[in-house]
Amino acid sequence: MTRQALNTGEMIELNPDLSPGCLLHRSDVNDVARVEDLTFICSGKREDAGPTNNWMAPSEAYDRLGRIFDGSMKGRTMYVIPYLMGPEGSPFSRVGVELTDSLYVALSMRIMTRAGRVAMDRLAVDGSGAPGTAAGFVRGLHSKADLDPRKRFICHFPEDQAIWSVGSGYGGNALLGKKCFALRIASHLGRLEGWMAEHMLLIGVEAPDGEVTYIAGAFPSACGKTNLAMLEAPLSQRGYRVWTLGDDIVWMHVGEDGRLWAINPEAGFFGVAPGTSYRTNPNAMRTVQRDTIFTNVLEAPNRTVWWEGMSDPPGHGADWRGRPWTPGNGDKGAHPNSRFTVPAANCPTLSPHWDAPMGVPVSAILFGGRRAKVAPLVYESFDWAHGVYVGASMASETTAAAAGQVGVVRRDPMAMLPFCGYNMGDYFAHWLEMGRRLTRPPKVFHVNWFRTDDRGQFLWPGFGDNLRVLRWIVDRCHGRAGAVETAIGFLPTLGDIDLDGLDLSEATIGELLRIDRGAWLEDLRDQTAFFTRFGERLPRAILERLQGTVARLSGQAYHGPASPA
Ligand code: SAT
Ligand code: MN
User: How many domains does the chain have?
Assistant: First the structure.
C-alpha cells in the first residue's frame, strides 16, 4: 500500500537515511482542518443533539450524503479497514469498520488504530456484530468524493452507530476512528452504558521514590496536549518523570475499587507539528524520527521535513502546498495545522501500562485552555460536582485545528464542544452521575499555561516546567501539599509550588495566581448566557455552582495567594 501511494504521488518518500520509513503527504489546499460547520449529529430528535451541535434528521442526512456518495468511488480502490479502538483483550475496546477510497486514510488508520486481524478476531469472538450491542461495530463510510467544500459533510448517527463522512480527506474529518467514533459516537455509548469518552491526554507522573500518579487532562485541540503528554522534566526536577499513555482521547470506567480507570483507545499520535522542537517537546521529536507520516509540512532539500518553530529554517524548500519556498518569502513553510501521524510505540516515554486491558486509575483530572487573561495558573475544585462545573465553564481561544477564526475566546466545556455526540446538558448530567458512582473520585483541577502580561508575553515558561504544577497537583491528590481556599477553588500559595531554578519575579508569580474579580464576574455573565442555552436540560447543580461562585466573588474581598485566609 505504501508503494502504491508513492506511485500515485499521494505520498512522497522522505530521506531513508535521515528519516527512515517516513512519508510526506500534502492534502488539498481547501482541506486542511476539521470542519465544525459541516459536522452534524443526526439523532432522531433535534433536542438530543442539543444547542451546541449541528443537527440533521437521519433520513435527510442519509439522502443528501447518499447522493454525494453515489458514484463517488468510481474507478477508485475501496479499502475496507476493520479496526479496534482500545487495547487488545480489553473489555472496554470496541470495533469499527471504515470503508474509504483514500489510501492516505488507510495508511493513517494503520497507525492511529489497531487495524486488521486483531479487530477481525475480536468480531469473531464477540459474535454477529449487530449494531447497537457491545459486540457490534461502528460502521464508517468515507469518500473523498471530489474534495469540494460545498459537498463536504461529516455526519454521525449515534442511534445507528454509523458515521458517514464525505468530501474531506484530512485528519478528524476522515480518520473515522478518532473524533467521529472514539469521541462523538463513544460519548453517546458511554452515556447509555455508564462510562465516559473524553478529549483528554493520559499520563503517569513518577516521583523519585517510584510512586506513579495518573492524570487525565482535557484541553482543546492544539493547546498543548501532546507536549504535556510527553513532558520531559527540567534539570532542576531530577528524579521526576512523566510516562505517556495517550495524547488525545481516553475512555474511562468506574472500577470495582470505586476509582475511575482510563484506557487510551488510540494506537498513535496525530500531533500538531508547528512549534514542536527539541526545546518544547524533545520526546515528540524523538518519536517522529522514523515511520511517521507528515502532512502539510515543509520539505527541505535533503528530503527531510521542517516546520515553523522546529529549528533554523533550511535555505529553501517546498512549502506545504508544494511551492518553492525561502525563509522570509512571506508564506508559512508548514500549514499551522500540519501534523505528524506516528505509532505510540515510537514514543520513548511510553508507559509500560499504556495498553493494559483494564487501563490505569486516574487520581486527577485537569481542565485547561488558552486564556490570556482571567484563569490563574492552577486551581483545584472543591469537590467532584464543583469540578464538573469548572469543566463545563471552560473557555479557550480558538486554534488552527478547526477551520475558522483563530484566537477568539469561546466556551468549550471539557474541551468537548466539537466532539460531544449528544446534548451537552445531558452530558453535564452524565458527569454528575458518574461522580455519584465513584467512591474514590479523582480530584479536579483547572490549569492555564497561557496567561500573558500587558505586552502579550506569556508569564509562565510552560513545557517542561509544567511539571512543577503537576507536582503540586500530585501532592494535593496524596494530601501532602498546602493550598488556600478562594472564591473559585483551592489555589497554591507562593511556597506550595517548587519554583527553584526558575527566573520568575514574585510579581510575576503573584500575577499568575491572581484572581481578577472584575474579569471573573464578567466571565461569569458569559457563562450564564452560555448555560442558558441548555434550558431544561441543564442540571441544577451546574447553575448552583455558578451562583455560588458569583456570591463568593461579589460578597468578599479576595485574599491573594500571598496572604492565606
Ligand atoms: O480533529 S483532528 O483529529 O483533526 C485533530 C484535532 O482537532 O484534535
Ligand atoms: Mn484532539
Answer: 3
- In Å, what is the CA distance from 327 to each residue of 306, 330, 333, 350? 11, 8, 8, 35
Candidate of 108, 178, 180, 295 to mutate for ligand 1, largest count of ligand atoms within 8 Å of Cβ? 178
Q: Tell me which residue range forms the domain holding 433.
A: 201-264+354-555
- Of ligand 1's listed atoms, the one at least distance from the Cα of 401 is 7
Query: In CATH, what number is assigned to the domain containing residue 487?
Result: 3.90.228.20
| Structural domain contains residue 12 | yes
What distance in Å separates the CA atoms of residue 146 and residue 125, rounded to the nearest whole number? 38
Which of residues 193, 218, 247 is at a domain's end?
Answer: 193
pLDDT at residue 129, as a whole number: 52
Per-residue pLDDT at 511? 94
Instruction: Identify the DSSP state of 464.
Output: G
CA distance 226 to 219: 10
Rounded to whole angstroms, how far apart are CA atoms 554 and 472? 28
Do 290 and 410 fall within a single domain?
A: no
129 and 225, same domain (yes or no): no
pLDDT at 559: 44
Q: Is residue 529 part of a domain?
A: yes
Residue 34 in contact with ligand 1 by CB distance below 6 A: yes
- Within a domain: residue 345? no
Full-model pTM:
0.96
Please report the atom of ligand 1 found closest to the CA of residue 170.
Answer: 4
* Last residue in a domain, options 175, 193, 211: 193
pLDDT in tens, 492-537: 998 899 999 999 999 999 999 999 999 999 999 999 999 999 999 9
Q: How far is the CA of 248 from the centre of ligand 2 (A)?
A: 5
In the predicted model, residues of the chain with pLDDT beneath 50 are: 131-132, 557-565
Predicted local distance difference test score (pLDDT) of residue 127: 57
Give catalytic residue positions: 223
Asked whether residue 319 is assigned to any structural domain, the reply reads yes
Q: What pLDDT, on a 0 to 100 scale, did the predictor assign at position 392?
A: 98
Ligand approaching nearest to the C-alpha of 416:
2
Strands (DSSP E) along 247-286, which ranges?
250-254, 260-263, 268-272
What pLDDT score was predicted for residue 204? 98
Shared-domain flag, residues 106 and 218: no
Ligand 1 neighbour 401 (Cβ under 6 A): yes
- Inter-residue contact 219 to 239 (CB < 8 Å): no
